[in-house]
Design goal:
Layout: H1 2-34, H2 40-48, E1 63-65, E2 67-68, E3 70-78, E4 80-88, E5 93-98, E6 111-115, H3 118-153, H4 159-191, E7 194-196, E8 202-206, E9 213-214, E10 219-235, H5 237-245, E11 250-254, E12 260-268, E13 279-285, E14 297-305, E15 311-314, E16 319-321, E17 324-328, E18 334-344, E19 347-351, E20 360-362
Antiparallel strand pairs: 1-20, 2-15, 3-14, 4-10, 5-6, 5-9, 6-7, 8-10, 10-13, 11-12, 11-14, 12-13, 15-19, 16-17, 17-18, 18-19
Helix pairs in contact: 3-4
């Protein structure tokens, strides 16, 4: 009987505990719907009352004007001869000697090679012999003409004989003049048996050897002028305008050799390449402490305006707040910008929808 009473008492306690737990759950639900959680009002108030950091008052009222940001365009070109030519023979003949090899510079006389002149000299000797004979005939005809003129005056010789002597004299004179012209032609041809190029030019290619037979019109060598170098570039219209703004002295960097040389614009093509849409420009190098030759890599740097409309501003004009950058107008208005990078000399490249070249901002906000 006592054990039964103990069981009933234990069941009663368990039911009381279960009823107590269910009541607490309903209380919590009612509290969630009607009563605020302790501390929630203070948290919301704190979020509403967080102030936006205010910028300090400008240190000074000094201003600056935003200018267009510049970008650098690097162009590569290779040196070549200032002028080039092919040395072509004007006579046929056998090569007697060649005085310059590839890479050699021609001497003061510009002589490159000589052809055999045996036959041309024989023709010249025959011409001069004919001239001597004609001169002798002229002297004889002159004497005969003078003698018959005297006889005709005394009516001791017919006029027809005098006319024949005069005609023979004129014919010999014309033949002598023709031989003299032929001599000049032979002398001029004799000069062309010596193959001569511009003094100081260098041999780029050589196509003959001593003893070889060459024909008229054959190319014997390629020559180039390397005391002055050309560097060709293909520039856009914007790059060409920037090049003109650089003036007469254009710096070129020697990429492989190191250092910089001064160049000038030698010539500009008036045409326009429809394929590359660029202008062909040649720069000329006349002085430099390096070996003048072709194939030297050079670099031309031209400064162009930024195509995205970026501007260059002093670093002191930028104000950073919440990981963003601002510029301050003289009226105290903030203008948000995007920092793009350094522009050199203490300047920064920035861009923004409300920032344009020519706008005025505070230098030290």
């Amino acid at each position: 009987m006592k054990r039964m009473c103990a069981y009933i008492t234990l069941l009663t306690l368990l039911c009381a505990l279960l009823l107590a737990g269910c009541g607490n759950d309903r209380l919590g639900e009612a509290g969630d719907g009607k009563a605020p959680v302790p501390g929630s009002d203070q948290a919301e108030a704190a979020q509403v009352e967080v102030p936006t950091p205010a910028l300090d008052k400008p240190v000074s009222t000094e201003t600056f004007t935003a200018r267009p940001a510049a970008r650098q365009s690097s162009l590569t070109g290779f040196t070549r001869a200032r002028s080039a030519m092919s040395l072509v023979t004007e006579e046929s003949g056998r090569v007697v000697k060649v005085l310059a090899d590839v890479g050699d510079a021609l001497g003061r006389d510009g002589l490159f090679a000589e052809l055999d002149t045996t036959f041309i000299k024989l023709d010249l000797a025959a011409n001069r012999a004919d001239q001597q004979r004609l001169k002798s005939d002229l002297d004889y005809n002159k004497k005969e003409m003078d003698r018959y003129q005297a006889l005709v005056k005394t009516d001791t010789a017919p006029q027809s004989t005098l006319d024949s002597n005069i005609r023979a004299h004129q014919a010999a004179l014309q033949q002598l003049r023709a031989k003299q012209v032929e001599e000049e032609v032979l002398l001029e041809r004799l000069k062309r048996f010596s193959l001569v190029g511009p003094p100081g030019w260098k041999v780029v290619s050589r196509y003959i050897e001593p003893g070889e037979w060459v024909t008229k019109g054959e190319t014997l060598a390629d020559l180039g002028r390397y005391d002055v170098l050309l560097v060709p570039f293909a520039l856009t219209s914007e790059e060409y305008r920037a090049l003109k703004d650089m003036g007469d002295a254009v710096p070129l960097r020697l990429t492989d050799l190191g250092g910089t040389v001064q160049a000038r614009v030698a010539r500009v093509s008036p045409g326009f390449d429809p394929i590359t849409r660029k202008i062909n420009v040649d720069l000329e190098i006349s002085q430099g402490d390096f070996e003048f030759r072709g194939g030297i890599r050079t670099e031309l740097n031209v400064v162009l305006s930024d195509p995205g409309g970026a501007v260059a501003v002093p670093a002191s004009a930028l104000v950073k707040a919440y990981e963003e950058y601002f510029l301050m107008t003289p009226d105290g208005e903030r203008v948000r910008v995007v920092l793009l990078g350094s522009a050199g000399d203490g300047l920064r490249r920035v861009s923004g929808p409300d920032v344009r070249p020519g706008d005025v901002f505070l230098l030290n906000p």
